[in-house]
Amino acid sequence: MGQDDSKAIAQFIRKTAKKEDIILKDMAAILAHTAGTKVVFELPDEVERGDRISGHLR
Question: What is the pLDDT of residue 54?
Fold first, then answer.
């Protein structure tokens, strides 16, 4: 575990101790960094959101 990992873990401990929200995208970034990968956030398409296209119900 590197210096950056230790800082991230410390941040989560501080937020938990202060009963502050922990944002999942931050957690994802830390896990991806540890795994040597990157996080890709995708917005759901119309079908996943349940929207209809062409002026139909949204």
Answer: 54
CB 32 within 8 A of CB 39: yes
Cα torsion 31, 36, 42, 48: sign: negative
Distance CA 21, CA 33 (A): 21
Burial group, residue 19, by CB count within 10 angstroms (0-12, 13-18, 19+): exposed
Tokens encoding 49: 């959101």
Which two three-digit tokens encode residue 56? Answer: 């139909």
Q: Do the beta carbons of residue 15 and residue 22 sit within 8 Å?
A: yes
Q: What is the pLDDT of residues 8-55, one digit of tens each?
A: 788 888 988 999 887 878 788 888 888 899 988 887 777 666 765 555
